[in-house]
Amino acid sequence: MSESASLIASLDELRQQALAACAEAKDLRMLESLRTSFLGKKGRLTSILKGVGRLSAEERPLVGKHVNELKTVLAQAFSEAESRLQVVAEAARIAAERLDVSLPGRKLASGAQHPLQKGLNEISDIFSRMGFTIAEGPEIEDEFHNFDALNIPPEHPARAMHDTFFLRSEDEQTSLLRTHTSPVQIRAMMKHLECNGESPLAVVAPGRVYRCDHDVTHSPMFHQVEVFKVGEDVSMAHLKGVLQYFLSTYFNRDLPIRLRPSYFPFTEPSAEVDMGCVLCDGKGCRVCKGSGWLEVLGSGMIHPNVLKAVGMDPARWSGFAFGLGVERLVMLKYGIPDLRLFFENDVRFLRRIGG
Ligand SMILES: [Zn+2]
Description:
Blueprint (H helix, E strand, L loop, with lengths): L2 H22 L3 H12 L4 H6 L9 H38 L18 H15 L3 E2 L5 E3 H4 L10 H5 L4 E2 L7 E3 L4 H15 L4 E10 L10 E11 L4 H15 L6 E8 L2 E10 L16 E10 L1 H7 L7 E8 H9 L12 H7 L2
Helix pairs in contact: 1-2, 1-4, 5-11
This protein binds zinc ion.
């Protein structure tokens, strides 16, 4: 076989193989790699054309014509295959992105407030509507705000009763987890004096407090709301009126209340507050131990020493203060039998009470 005939035979073979491969290509990537292997710089056509140099001058035009024809045919074949595979790729993409609009929707789980947070908000809202300003303070406190300024000096027996978590700090300062929200009373009064000078103020301070007397009826962390009002003529009558309004609003019914003499270091006089039992309407039940009354909070007139500690003149200013246990109020309102339910995070309980 002459040199040119052998070259032409190779070109024909290449043509058949390339056309067959083109027809069978499954995707654009595969097609591109075929194009490189047949027509690329280091491809099979290039290596066949190396033989053209050995041809005589008469043979070259004949082979050249074949090569040009081959290039045209293959270019056409690759271009057609590319169009075909583009359609396939587009169809595959559309199929992958297909949405079945008839499928039922997936529900988004909506969060809800924890029953205690809900209680804190409800309680704060009632006082807020009465004109009390909401204040917050740090949970890590010092002895001055948690005890000293509240008329509980270091040797006072009430300190021992607070079951305080003390924190060790590097600067030798004694820090502690606040045992009540009353330090916010001190902070709010001091800040108010600094910003406004001596003038009336009314504050509600919700928050977490900590005591280390953990048992079934106590949690080491619980919630209180501190409420106080200072003015030039604030009296026990105001205290009773505010309590009456608050308890009736929170429990959504007319509730009798009564004040019993008591003792707290930071109030003078001090009073325990009872309200008519919300479970038996005062008839007497297991929860109120048959008395028809429930003890709900401690209250009193702010002790002159507390006013002095923040720099207010007790001869001119007077105020009332009380602290609410949020867990107890929420339990009474919703008939929750066990404090531990609040902290077990059982969603069935949280859904029933929260929201
Ligand atoms: Zn009762």
